[in-house]
Amino acid sequence: MSSTNEAFNFVGSQGTTLSGRLHRPGTETANAVKGSILLAHCFTCSKDLHTMSRLAGGLADAGYVALRFDFTGLGQSDGNFAETSVSANVSDLTRAAASLIEAGFGPCGLIGHSLGGAAAVLAAARLKTVRSLVTIGAPADTAHVRHLLSDSLSDLDAGRPATVDIAGRRFDLEPGFVSDLGSHNVLTSASELDRPYCVVHAKDDAVVGFENAVALHDAAMAPKRLAALDTGGHLFGGREHAEELLDTIVDWFGSTL
Q: Which of 65, 85, 94, 176 has a 20 to 30 A CA-CA distance from 14?
């Protein structure tokens, strides 16, 4: 029987309910679960982005319990996105990891995509329940997303709220989001992470350049791996790319969880 998934909601960092989907292995492998894995989506995305849903389902098929969820104010989660920040995302990840523990799933692996990958590095540095980390197309600096806000940066930098257009969708942001970007050092957190870390990045990623992967890998301590995939872009949208991404991550967690 194939894997299954069910609603898994929990209280986030701002006291609102966050929406998640918990994927479980099929009945034939349910008694031999290999571990639990938490997934963090990219900036302004959701748990239902194909990158997240395919990974979660594939990890469950491989014998892991996998949780994907929406950050505060995105997807089906409650809360106001305008009031969120990287710091809030890190806290949401902390609450998600704690909720897995409370549900009896024990220590976990952590996967973060794009800005969610930067947040995952920052969160893993404070979460001893994270046994192994994977980032996918992650920036080495949270300020990388400033270029997405270019039309509104003058207002935000001046302390005024603004509405930004990202990939054809409009989002309200408070100036605190931008000021918070500069308060994090992802490379320092990577250098202090004392657990296995795999940096996955497509060489043809046009959104977050491959040099970010090199910087993250160089900063991290061993055990570490730089999984440089020739193609896949930023979202690994094609079936072949998605399967290569999944195989890479399953192999990593198979040896580190």
A: 65
